[in-house]
Specification:
The complex is a heterodimer of chains A (522) and B (315). With 522 residues, chain A is α/β, with parallel strands linked by helices. Helices cover 39% and strands 24% of the residues of chain A. Chain B has one domain. Chain B contains 14 helices and two strands, in the order αααααβααααβααααα. Mean pLDDT of chain B is 86; it is low at 1-6. Classes of the chains: A alpha/beta (522), B mainly alpha (315).
């Protein structure tokens, strides 16, 4: 057996009093892909930061190919051959995609010939599917393409150790298949890859071995198959998806079971009462939200090409569709964040066409935005309070308590900075903030993105409770099974129009859904 | 996208050298007034190129220009008066001393990011000024006289021209070559740049040293022209503010921003020379209007108008 390429020994990282990584050991052999899974907040991104050099360990050593790199800054580790991606992409926004790669190329090889560098860039862009965007400013890329740029940039360093931090989040099945192909094309006998991922399929298909982190400690390490079948892992991490994994492994067919356990008792309904706007009697016969022939886009590109949508009070609506189909654009049109080109919008009987976002929000539309958008300079409680703009102090307090009842972890951390929370907690905060406005219509955009399955269970339980309490919900979701289990009606966006719509049960049973949504993956 | 169309480094360097050759013979054709104005423009162009290099390319917004102008002036006088060094040799030493001071203070200054860095450079300039005023060996509040007569104005113009050409070539080197993406990566996101193998400290230091060397040379030429220096003028905050104003008016980060800004501000000053109070007020109003309606300066505004015109032509 050859020596490990990268060795992490007894590494500890403390942030103030919090131990984020507690005596973790990890050895990467050349030619291997190692998966790191675990709940949100388990320390996975911290571990990536420690290996990449963005963070300095409090204790322990990190050795790359026999050389102690523990004290080297990030730039030197990158030069030594460690390439990482950021979970939340950090491209150089004002540079083109190609220039973003040049940074890595010219920093490690300032005198590489222009032709060789150009060929290497072209090859990387093709491999990561960004070749059509080479001349675009990185700012113009949507989130998922920015993630690809993260991978391309890391590879431009010609690294020996590649650290991929949640590059699969938010991808549909066919894109995940491409990602897996890409990862497998990177690996060779001199390299090692670490994958932090919540998309279990990536871990299962790429990683021979995996480790599970929980509360900063290594819970278990071993062959990926055994790890995923482990009961303890199912308990702390996989949740109901673990159950699904096992079942599908047994009988070989996918099971679209309910990911949530609806059945909120009356006490829970009372608890949520401060957050639910009462249905006003005068519009109860008409729809709460009505879109007619809405077209919208950015600049020349038309994303929505004629959308008709009716949402009635108390309904839960799921908007499904592949990446780039226009789901988020639709949400932004409803909330007034972007102006639509034609068509009309009515909310609670009023024509809101052309209204400003704050005006629409004041009428009772709350938007839980993709990517959470937590305000970093505010504490958890302050983040919640800013959404309760028109409520007096006692009402704000009632709503806060209701949100804390729904997500007790937020109460524990109410004085922490909003962005110091783990990904799952931040998503809870984003949902809580949406509820604080006591909306008549709440739009949840990709709330499960980048979350551990067990956390998704929690969030969907919360949504189920809200539905029970008769809140009107619009869910934009990548996870078809979860969304359809909860929704009354579902619409599938395809190329800017609703290609499919109907009751959730009909949609779930419709074979076209797999075709539209999952593409040519199967 | 637009960067692809702009001339690459050699072509731009050729343009600068042609301009150098043409302007070299300017003293034969323009009178005393023209030379005075030209001299002032070239000195400010040098400072503005350096400032734009730091702020526009590396993201280091400095209020410490006066610190290096003053340093160059004092070092030049020491070398010319004390050692009887020829002026070209003195200018080289001034540049080196500017760069050396930048290197000396960088470990402390680069611990500060963003606005804090700006305040740090301001403190540095004030510190140096106070030292000059209070230490009698440096001439105290009265300063120094130049021992020998300064060269004639046409000669001084050519010195200023040579220094400005060095500044313009340095800017071309930093903006039109591979160094450009490295500098901008540090400006946009230092941490992400480090993860790409870029050493942010060294990159910022290089930009800071280069800008400081240019400011010290400009300060030295200016001081020689004056024939006498004192700390309030050479270390005056006015230098830093003038340069910052010029680059913001011209366009921060734009290649032509320093040139357009220097020409604009100096032309404005001349047009309003008879009304000094109105001059400052009008310059202030222009700055406010530009920042409100053309945050990328005159160059940015022109580019936007050009794009709009092309768009109309296509439509």
């Amino acid at each position: 057996m050859n020596a490990p390429l990268l060795e992490v020994a007894g590494v500890v990282k403390r942030f103030g009093g919090i131990v984020a990584i507690d005596h973790v050991d990890l050895a990467l052999l050349p030619g291997t892909i190692t998966g790191v899974i675990g709940p949100n907040g388990a320390g996975k991104s911290t571990l990536i930061g420690l290996i990449g050099g963005a963070l300095a360990p409090s204790h322990g050593t990190i050795t790359l190919d026999g050389r102690d790199v523990t004290r080297l800054p990030a730039s030197e580790r990158a030069r030594a051959g460690i390439g990482r991606t950021y979970q939340i992409p950090r491209p150089f926004l004002d540079m083109t995609v190609e220039e973003n790669l040049e940074v890595a190329q010219y920093s490690i090889e300032p005198f590489i010939s222009a032709g060789a560098a150009r060929r290497a860039r072209a090859e990387l862009l093709v491999r990561t599917g960004l070749d059509d965007a080479a001349m675009f400013p990185a700012r113009a890329l949507p989130l998922l393409r920015r993630k690809r740029l993260e991978v391309a940039r890391a590879l431009a360093l010609k690294p020996r150790v590649v650290l991929l931090d949640e590059v699969g989040a938010g991808l549909v099945d066919s894109e995940i298949t491409e990602l897996i192909t890409l990862i497998k094309s990177i690996i060779d006998s001199r390299k090692a890859i670490v994958i932090v991922e919540h998309v279990i399929r990536v871990v299962r298909e790429c990683c021979a071995r995996s480790i599970v982190l929980n509360f900063g400690k290594k819970l278990i390490e071993g062959p990926t198959g055994e790890i995923l079948a482990n009961d303890e892992v199912a308990a702390v991490y996989l949740g109901t998806q673990g159950a699904r994994e096992k079942r599908s492994a047994c009988d070989g067919e996918p099971v679209a079971d309910a990911a949530v356990h609806v059945g909120a008792p009356a006490a829970e309904r009372d608890m949520l009462a401060p957050l639910i706007a009462a249905a006003s009697s005068n519009v109860s016969d008409g729809p709460l939200l009505e879109l007619r022939g809405v077209e919208a886009g950015y600049g020349q590109a038309r994303v929505l090409k004629g959308i008709d949508l009716i949402v009635r009070e108390g309904q839960a609506i799921a908007i499904l569709g592949a990446n780039g189909a226009g789901k988020t654009t639709l949400a932004r049109v409803i909330t007034g964040a972007i102006a639509h080109a034609s068509g009309s919008l009515r909310f609670a009987g009023h024509d809101i066409t052309g209204f400003a976002p704050h005006h629409i929000a004041a009428m009772g539309v709350a938007h839980c935005m993709e990517g959470r958008r937590i305000i970093p300079s505010l504490s958890v409680e302050e983040n919640l309070k800013i959404a309760a703009r028109r409520a007096d102090a006692p009402k704000t307090r009632q709503r806060l308590n209701a949100v804390y009842d729904l997500f007790p972890v937020l109460a524990e951390r109410k004085n922490s900075a909003g962005t110091s929370l783990s990904g799952g907690q931040q998503q809870m905060l984003a949902i809580g903030r949406t509820l604080m406005a006591r909306p008549r219509l709440a739009i949840f955009d990709e709330i499960s993105l980048g979350l551990a399955p067990v956390v998704m269970d929690k969030l969907y339980e919360a949504l189920a409770m809200l539905k029970q309490a008769r809140m009107t919900l619009v869910m934009i979701e990548q996870d078809v099974d979860r969304a359809l289990a909860l929704a009354d009606y579902a619409y599938v966006l395809e190329h800017g129009v609703f290609g499919l719509s109907g009751s959730a049960a009909e949609i779930a049973a419709n074979p076209l859904l797999r075709h539209i949504y999952i593409g040519a993956a199967d | 996208m637009k960067r692809e169309k702009i001339a690459p480094a050699p072509r731009e360097a050729a343009v600068i050298l042609v301009a150098f050759a043409v302007l070299w013979f300017a003293p034969a054709f323009i009178g005393e007034y023209g030379l005075q104005l030209g001299f002032r423009t070239l000195i400010y162009l040098t400072l503005a190129e350096g400032w734009n290099l730091m702020a526009g390319s590396a993201g280091l917004v400095s209020l410490g220009t006066s610190c290096f102008v003053g340093l160059g002036a004092y070092v030049a006088y020491g070398l010319l008066n004390g050692l009887d060094l020829p002026l070209p040799a003195a200018l080289v030493v001034c540049a080196l001393s500017g760069a050396a001071l930048a290197a000396l203070v960088s470990p402390a200054l680069f611990r500060l990011r963003g606005l804090y860095f700006t305040v740090g450079t301001l403190a540095l300039a004030e510190l140096l000024r106070l030292i000059m005023i209070n230490v009698s060996a440096f001439g105290g509040a009265t300063g120094f006289f130049l021992k020998n007569d300064p060269p004639a104005l046409p000669i001084l113009f050519r010195y200023a021209l040579a220094v400005a050409v060095i500044a313009a070539l340095a800017a071309t080197l930093c903006v039109r070559t591979r160094a450009s993406v490295i500098l901008r990566s540090v400006r946009d996101d230092e941490d992400a740049a480090a993860q790409m193998g870029v050493r942010p400290f060294r990159v910022k230091l290089a930009a800071f040293m280069l800008a400081s060397a240019l400011a010290a040379m400009a300060g030295a030429v200016q001081a020689v022209k004056l024939g006498a220096i004192e700390p309030y003028g050479m270390f005056g905050l006015q230098w830093s503010i003038d340069v910052l104003t010029m680059v913001i008016i011209g366009g921060v980060g734009a290649r032509l921003g320093p040139l357009v800004g220097a020409l604009f501000v100096i032309a404005l000053g001349e047009a309003l020379a008879d009304y000094p109070e109105a001059h400052i007020a009008i310059a202030g109003v222009i700055l406010i209007v530009l920042i409100r309606f053309a945050p990328r300066g005159i160059v940015g505004l022109a580019a936007a108008l050009g794009r709009a015109a092309r768009g109309r032509a296509l439509a």
